[in-house]
């Protein structure tokens, strides 16, 4: 393995990619996707345009990477929130923990949230296909969670997938609302409970 300045080729490539993503989040989040050029992103991240096009097909490909990063962070926040409650916690307690963790993550990365849930909408079919893929992953994670709830006798086994899709949809709507009007984590959780408690209670 070739090493330069203490880093392997793969580590240097990953560092460049991270800098490009971080720079694009700042520029897209403040100026917008259409108003930002690849050259500006490269200048801000100290990455050459040649390296940019080796790592990303185009600016849209970079936007997809940002959107996928946001969804990954969202799933990680959900996992942290749910891991903090006892295994036998009731449904509302779990929803509240997930909501608080999600809102805290949004507050920690407001520009990332703006790009993912405002700036990335309506760009292209390719971007929307990526959104659909990440949404499907979130639904599968939620399905796993609801199966655990069934195993613990907290909800019944009916209509799992519809409930999971509703949960993911509720989170997405609240995150879009948060971008326009940030609210404290506890209020975010309360709104989430209001939306979902009737649905989960009816399962």
Question: Can you walk me through this structure?
Answer:
Strand 1 and strand 2 (7-8) form a beta hairpin. The chain is built from nine helices and two strands. It has two domains: 1-56, Arc Repressor Mutant, subunit A, CATH 1.10.10.60; 59-202, Tetracycline Repressor, domain 2 (Orthogonal Bundle). The mean pLDDT is 84. The protein is mainly α and 203 residues long. The protein is 77% helix and 2% strand. The chain is elongated. Helix 5 (91-108) runs antiparallel to helix 9 (185-202). The protein has a two-stranded antiparallel ribbon with strand order 1-2. This is Helix-turn-helix transcriptional regulator. Residues 37-56 bind DNA. It comes from Actinomadura barringtoniae.
Helix-strand blueprint:
Elements: E1 3-4, E2 7-8, H1 9-31, H2 38-45, H3 49-55, H4 59-83, H5 91-108, H6 110-119, H7 125-151, H8 160-180, H9 185-202
Antiparallel strand pairs: 1-2
Helix pairs in contact: 1-2, 1-4, 1-6, 4-5, 4-6, 4-7, 5-9, 6-8, 7-8, 8-9
């Amino acid at each position: 393995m070739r090493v330069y300045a203490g880093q392997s080729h793969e580590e240097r490539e990953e560092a460049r990619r991270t800098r490009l993503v971080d720079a694009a989040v700042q520029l897209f989040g403040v100026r917008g996707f259409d108003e930002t050029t690849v050259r500006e992103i490269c200048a801000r991240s100290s990455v050459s345009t040649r390296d940019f096009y080796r790592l990303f097909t185009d600016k849209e490909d970079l936007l997809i990477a940002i959107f996928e990063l946001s969804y990954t962070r969202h799933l990680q926040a959900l996992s942290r929130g749910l891991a903090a409650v006892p295994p036998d916690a009731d449904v509302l307690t779990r929803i509240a923990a997930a909501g608080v963790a999600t809102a805290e993550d949004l507050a920690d990365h407001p520009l990332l949230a703006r790009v993912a849930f405002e700036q990335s909408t309506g760009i292209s079919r390719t971007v929307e296909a990526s959104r659909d893929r990440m949404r499907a992953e979130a639904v599968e994670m939620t399905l796993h969670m609801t199966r655990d709830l069934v195993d613990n006798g907290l909800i019944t086994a009916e209509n799992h997938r519809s409930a999971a899709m509703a949960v993911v949809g509720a989170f997405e709507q609240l995150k879009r609302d948060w971008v326009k009007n940030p609210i404290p984590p506890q209020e975010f959780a309360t709104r989430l409970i209001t939306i979902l408690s009737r649905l989960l209670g009816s399962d």
